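Fill in residues.
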């Protein structure tokens, strides 16, 4: 963002102020890029179906034991050995290929991301 500001200042301000302020904004822009690069460099990428374990979802079709749940905006095949009715909240405990193993959520369990269906 600051690099764009440097270009705009360079073009709009009269000489020598355009060059001076443009150079300062360019230095801060490079510093901003270096800062963001250093903050995200150590983070692990969270992607894939294994990130769904522990998330909460809503049963779409009865799981007795096989059914479907809605989790993070997508409908997944699910298996619930204890059984779950449509509309009931469930928590993902494992994954077998593209089938999620779920169990009914207890009322005192802390809410997890994904239950909203976004």
């Amino acid at each position: 963002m600051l690099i764009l500001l440097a270009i705009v200042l360079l073009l709009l301000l009269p000489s020598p102020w355009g060059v001076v302020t443009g150079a300062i904004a360019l230095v801060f822009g490079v510093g901003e890029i270096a800062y963001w690069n250093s903050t995200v460099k150590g983070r692990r990428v969270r992607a894939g179906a294994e990130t769904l374990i522990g998330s909460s979802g809503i049963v779409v079709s009865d799981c007795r034991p096989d059914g479907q749940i809605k989790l993070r905006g997508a409908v997944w095949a699910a298996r619930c050995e204890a059984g779950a009715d449509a509309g009931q909240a469930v928590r993902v405990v494992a994954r077998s290929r593209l089938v999620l193993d779920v169990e009914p959520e207890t009322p005192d369990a802390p809410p997890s991301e994904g239950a909203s269906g976004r």
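Helices lie at 2-12, 17-41.
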